[in-house]
Amino acid sequence: MSLDDTRSPLAEAGTADEARSEPTEACSTLAESDEAHSEPTEAGSTPAESSDISHFLDSARSLTTIAQGEIVPATIIKITDTEVVVDVGLKCEGAIPRSEFLGLDGQVSVVAGDVIHILIEHYNEQEGTVRVSYEKAALRQAWEDIEQAFQDQKTITGKVLERTKGGLTVDVGVPAFLPGSHADLRPHFNADALLGQEIPLKVIKVNRKRNNAVVSRRAVLEEDLARRKAALLEHLKEGAVLTGHVKNLTDYGAFVDLGGIDGLLHVTDLSWGRVAHPSEAVKPGQELRVKVLKYDPEKGRVSLGLKQLQPDPWQNVPSTYRVGGRVTGRVVGVVDYGAFVELEPGIEGLVHSSEMSWSKRLKHPSKIVNLGDRVEVSILDVNPTQRRISLSLRQSLPDPWTTLTQRHPVGSVLEGRVRNLTEFGAFVEIEEGIDGLVHLSNMNWSKDVRHPSEILRKGQKVEVTILGIDSDKRRVSLGLKEVGPDAWSEFCGRVQAGDVVRGKVARLAAFGAFVEIEDGIDGLCHTSEIVGHAPGQDRAGLEVGKEYAFRILRVNPTDKKISLTMKEVDQAAAAAAEPVGAPAEAGAEAPAVVAESTAPVETASVESTGASES
Question: 149-187: buried (b, 16+ CB within 10 Å) or exposed (e) per residue?
Fold first, then answer.
């Protein structure tokens, strides 16, 4: 209730003495006024004059009903340098100090003719004096309005004056306290933002005796929120298009105030294109039209979409992007398993790590492409239903396997680096992205290699020979021993069937003895070709590691087999004989051949690989 709404019976009573010719002359008492009007004139009075006199006397008597402490309306007559003169409806005027009308800017807030409410502090009818106060009337009226607003739970308006301990001081006619917790719905609201503002409030506590009033802005906001929420729920449903304001941003999306209910606009629903952070698409306070994607009344959760109000770019994908075609895009994401390439806003494809390079050794995608790179890719697959496009980077590059035979024909020797060792051989990189296999059987002519680590080590540079290329299966066969001379070919060029050679028994088997003639050259002497051997005997006492003389029965360079015999071999003479073809230089290794034959030997032979006992 405002001060201007208060009315007194005095305001309704019309008085004949309201017009004064000289406002500054001294007040006449009501008694003198009554006496003056009660005396008839010499000429007498007419009935009409008697009626006016009676009306005036009745009005005058009603003035005596004003009591001390009463609030009555008054009209400002004039404003001086020190006081404001008001007409309170009495035979005298009231004077109020000018200071009671000064505003915050130091200026008088009223003008002559304004009607204000004042408090009658003292009134002496006999002396014709009155003392009135504008401030006290306003203060009393303010407290009455505050108490009434508290009882009726009505909303009042106040101006935030200053910040105080624990809250704010608000002018609601009297200074009132606004706790910081009641300044806003948010718990950590910046209350300083309200300084100097006119805000709506609810009175939550009042004690007039202690001049204590506590108000709340949060109560007004909660009431308004509940009203807007009820209105929103009437038409909140999935598929509805609503208008809201961005409340705050998180890493995973934006919360939008729909008017009583907050909805989550997930980062994936902001745009058809890639959005790394919600701040790239929206800003706090921004007004948005959003679509309700899902509403859970029980949990009060609302999922919103912004991109759903825009055309879906995937609708044109089948006609725009065809399998086998080449397109150019921008790298927008690099992950462990590949790279995402944006073909157009909202359309992305994945280049799997296996499609990054022709090399079988997969590198991390970040070693091949970087964010923002423009790349040309080939389309491997298009799936509009699942919104997936498979791309290939290597398909847009020349396939090194198609021209490998031209660059490195079979039989050519080249240098490579050992990349990996396995139980069956070693992989050697002959050029970027192309590895070849050196099998155990192709590592050494003479040595029986059980594991590649006996000869090679990882990272070692070696020379290898191209043995075979299968471009379809992307395989290259390499040889290590083929780079050097073939020990078997050299040996077979020096000996022939019938020659006598010396050899050391390498190992014994049930069917004979394996003899090492030279380093890497083994032959087999069958039990039937051992002198003094009888059925059931154990190889006629041959000792492993001991050297004997043997005659060559047969040489098979292709299968690398030599058949030996001890028959018709003079062991003593063979031991004393000078080896055939002994080198002239001292210290050189002597060949194992001790005697040459001039006629072929007809003795049956048993073949041996020197590597198998069966």
Answer: bbeeeeebebebbeeeeebbebbbbbebbbbbebbbeee
Q: What are phi and psi of 538, to 5 degrees?
A: -95, 85
**Residue pLDDT, tens place only, 550-604:** 888 888 877 778 898 888 777 766 565 555 444 434 344 444 555 554 444 333 3
- φ/ψ of 207, rounded to 5, equals -140, 95
Q: Cα(347)–Cα(320) distance, rounded to whole angstroms?
A: 11
User: Alpha-carbon distance 66 to 127, whole Å?
Assistant: 15
38-92 residue pLDDT tens? 444 444 445 555 666 665 555 555 444 567 778 888 888 888 888 889 888 777 7
CA torsion, ordered 318, 323, 324, 330, to nearest 10 deg: 60
* Cβ-contact 526, 481 below 8 angstroms: no
**SS3 assignment for 276-316:** CCHHHCCCCCCEEEEEEEEEECCCCEEEEECHHHCCCHHHH
Reading phi first (left if > 0) and then psi (alpha if -120 to 50, else beta), residue 129 is in: beta
| Burial grade of 235 (CB within 10 A; 0-12, 13-18, 19 or more) | exposed
On whether the CB atoms of residues 411 and 465 are closer than 8 A, the answer is: yes
Domains with residue ranges and CATH for the chain? 3-135 (2.40.50.140), 153-222 (2.40.50.140), 235-309 (2.40.50.140), 319-386 (2.40.50.140), 400-483 (2.40.50.140), 487-595 (2.40.50.140)
Higher pLDDT: 468 or 36? It is 468
Q: How many residues does the chain have?
A: 614
CB 204, CB 156: distance < 8 Å: no
Q: What is the DSSP string of 476-520?
A: EEEESGGGS--HHHHHHHH--TT-EEEEEEEEEETTEEEEEEETT
Place of tokens 């022709």: 358
Quickly tell me which residue has 């000792």 as its tokens. 543
Bridge partner residues of 215 (DSSP): 203
**φ, ψ (nearest 5 deg) of residue 551:** -110, 140
